[in-house]
Amino acid sequence: MPYFHTHTLSFIDNHEIHPVAWRADIWDDEANGGATPIILTPSAEPLVLERVDTSDDKATIIIGQQATLQYEFTGAPDEPLPAHFFDVDERRFRIDVYRADVLYGRYYVKPDSCTYEYKAPPYTVTLTAVDGLSFTKGVKWDAYKGTGLIDYRWMDLYDVLITRGLMQVMEDDMEVNVINTLRPENIGIGGSFLNDLYVHSDMFFDFAKGPDDVYTVLEKVCKQFYLRLFIAQNKIWIIRMPDLLRPAITAENYILGIKNIITLQTARRTIGVSRAAKDATPVDDFANIIMFPAIKKVELSLDYRSLNRLANFDWSVYHDFPGVGTQFQDWPGMIAPDVQQHGSGTKEDPYTAFLQYNSASPGEDFIINFFGGVFVPPEVGSPRPGDIIQLSFKYKFRNVDAFKIRVVLAGPNPGQRLYLSSSGDWTYGPVADIDIRRSGRKQIGSLEIKSVPIPTKIGEFETSSQLELQTSIYTPTDPNTLDAPDSAQGVEIYPIKIGIIPMSSVGRKIIDTNNGRFSKPLEDEKFYFMDTGLNGLANTISVSDTGVPSEKWASETVPADKLDVEQHLADSIIDQYARPVYGWEGNLYSNTIEFWHIFSFDYLFGRQFVQTTDRYIVKTCTHVTNLQEVLPENGADTTYTEFDIEDSNDE
Questions:
Q1: CA pseudo-torsion sign 530, 531, 537, 543
Q2: Bridge partner residues of 259 (DSSP)
Q3: Quick check: is 490 in a domain?
Q4: Same domain, 91 and 110
Q5: Which pick of 25, 273, 313, 350 has the fewest CB atoms within 10 Å?
Q6: What is the total count of domains within the chain?
Q7: Which domain of life is it from (predicted)?
Q8: Same domain as 445, residue 479
Q9: pTM of the full predicted structure?
Q10: 317-339 as b/e, with b when 16 or more CB fall inside 10 Å?
Q11: Is residue 153 part of a domain?
């Protein structure tokens, strides 16, 4: 629904030299248009802007902002009662904050965080509002095509982070500034971060659970490059801190996805005692220098994610073949009418394969056989010894209790068969099926299996490179009437994934050690992307929409330091804490400093800082803030190691 402007509050801050006019406009998506906005009376502290979901750690990835608006309720007839803003949902009221008539921030009122004084008027009403980033944990990433089918492909980072991510929680296609020069050497001259780097949508979609929330997607990508993401001056900022130390600070500026290079002339700010000569000055005598410990060791781990090898995995292609019957295209072994296409193909009602109960031969009729010939992309090839098979899908029982699935690796000779168990182990010998049974009245369930590596020999069977993966699903058994009045009897199979991890291990572990004499470890951190050199893994970063793997990364700050992207991540974490790091905490007087700035102090020569927390009391131009020193890239002496993570199948 459209928003209409209903209330406004204005004031001028108290800056001694350059006072600024501020305005907060309140918009309501349930109001009728055309009415003159009601003017609210500002309180003594009318507007406070505070960074939230952050800490004194400069490595915090996603940093939101909260706006606290205070007005005086006098009881006048045209003034809104506090309940007008309180008894509503979280997106009904929007607050647009303007600085000198330029949109500075957009926030949404959180009724459960609002307060007012319990007394007769006049009294103060406090409205607490948050920016769009605060909603990212509750909104799903857009994993779908316009038709509603899963959009399963390599996507550029603008599409991933902005269009399908942040624009799900923002109203406008906001301007984006990226300060990050880390690039692979095969990206080409002038290659941009958001337009020319690609990741696969599989990284953000689970075939059993659905898409990630927007926050998780932002975190997965930004963490890989040691980036901070926040909104300031109504722009999205994505910043890699070492790039703030360049002599000339430039940014990739994106407007509606179109990139330009801009120079940030005001990025550097100085802090000193002269209010006329400096951008900010300390307030009172309560500032402190605090120290943050160096990091001795970083441990990072990554779980490999395969790409789906199945054609028509979403059951969208369904035809009536003359003389054959109705069945799914590209899926050999169909027996109609025991399998049907259900659903409308939307994200709310996806296509499914409906396996109908067959009273004549329950649990016996072979329905679907996934032969090696239907695997895509073909250049990856068939499974080989050492590979890991992934199987994942969601299902729904309808008046039945059980069905079974069989996953087989077939060798070139008759009788050469390996069977996958529900635990992920391979067996050789008698036929082995995975039995899936209903839990009481529960209709919906999921199956997720990651196999152990395909063995080179098991029993009398020596595997070869000529393996064929076959997966069979059988008609359900044990009919019941649990789901009446639904008269159907069968099982719905939702979009399904079968993938191959050609890595002989389930993941990768990194240990990066600071060779200095320090003690603080950073352990058990997850990361999500690495330079694998394989386009069959979703963890690979690509330089094209066809999945060409990235190669050897370097930045403008240290162009000769060409490393795999995962080593850059580990080194970046230690580089920023290569030695004990200076911090500053206290109050600053300013109405011009921003969260994306880099700061220097009169009496801390040669050190540069970024803000980690900030509570900006706008009327008095006071920032209650913490700053932390930024260290240069490649400043630590480290020892780097990588090794495989083996799967014990304990899950």
A1: positive
A2: 254
A3: yes
A4: yes
A5: 273
A6: 3
A7: Bacteria
A8: yes
A9: 0.94
A10: ebeeeeeeeebbeebeebeeebb
A11: yes
* Predicted confidence (pLDDT) per residue in 271-315, tens digit: 998 888 899 999 987 899 999 999 999 999 999 999 998 878 999
Q: What are 481's two structure tokens? A: 């009437």
Please report whether residue 547 resides in a domain.
no
pLDDT value for 351: 95
One domain, residues 428 and 493: yes
> Half-sphere exposure (CA, 13 Å, Cβ side) for 446?
14
Among the three residues 471, 501, 531, which one is the final residue of a domain in this structure? 501
Please state the length of the chain: 651
Tell me how far apart the alpha carbons of residues 334 and 368 are, in angstroms, rounded to a whole number.
Answer: 6
Domain interval for residue 594: 137-302+574-639
- E strand spans, 161-220: 176-179, 183-184, 198-200, 205-206, 210-211
Q: Which two tokens stand for residue 648?
A: 């014990």
290 and 354 together in one domain: no
Beta strands in 421-459 (DSSP E): 426-428, 434-437, 444-450, 457-458
3-state secondary structure of 393: strand
Mean pLDDT by 10 residues, the chain (651 residues): 92 96 96 88 97 84 97 89 88 96 96 91 95 95 95 97 95 91 93 97 96 98 97 97 95 94 94 89 88 96 92 86 72 64 93 87 61 41 85 95 90 82 90 92 94 83 74 87 89 92 91 96 92 91 96 93 95 96 96 97 92 97 97 95 75 39
